[in-house]
Amino acid sequence: MKRVIKNILGLMVVCVFAACSKSSDEDILPPPTYEYEENPTTLEGTWHLVKALYGLSGVVEYPAGDVEVYFTENTMEVKQHSHNADPKGTQPFLDSGKYTYSIFEAEEPGKNNRLLIKGSELGPYYFYNQDMLVIDYGMAYDAPGYYFKKVRTLYFY
CA 146, CA 114: separation in Å to the nearest integer? Predict the structure, then answer.
């Protein structure tokens, strides 16, 4: 009988220590590694916000995968994984959620197309520059510009 009680108490002690452990999957697994596409030519796919230019407020850089945008043919989904409003009070791109979009093609050669989000009549310009997608809400007029890199593959080690 004493042996049974000892075994039960021993098992309970082990369970208590296991339940109180602070380790989690995030502590055990390393963060994913991303490989980015060079010279992207289409919106469809997964994009990571890497930096934002807020005019006179300066440039804010974002960790890989913190803000993701998934473009399909006519919808985009924004996921903000760990982002809270940064100290300057700026909002990185759009709130998490799904949005419809359409493309307004530039009528003149050399001009940038516009991204019409949620049926807007006048959306931001977008263009590709140095392996990045740039969504420009009017950087020349102190409005924000967002720089994204297109994810080619995702590696977990």
Answer: 14
Which is it for strands 67-71 and 45-53: parallel, antiparallel or unpaired?
Answer: antiparallel
Render pLDDT for 106-131 as a digit per residue (tens, 0 to 9): 888 778 888 999 878 788 999 999 89
CA-CA distance, 150 to 41, in Å (whole number)?
10
Q: Of 129, 127, 147, 132, which is closest to residue 53 (Cα–Cα)?
A: 147
**pTM for the structure as a whole:** 0.71
**pLDDT tens digits for range 37-52:** 998 988 999 999 999 8
Residue pair 49/94 in contact (Cβ under 8 Å)? The answer is: no
CA dist., res. 137 & res. 23, Å (int): 43
Tokens of 117: 């989000």
b/e for 137-156, b at 16 or more Cβ within 10 A?
eebeeeebbbbbbbbeeeee
Instruction: Report how far residue 94's alpha carbon sits from residue 135's, in angstroms, rounded to the nearest whole number.
Output: 12
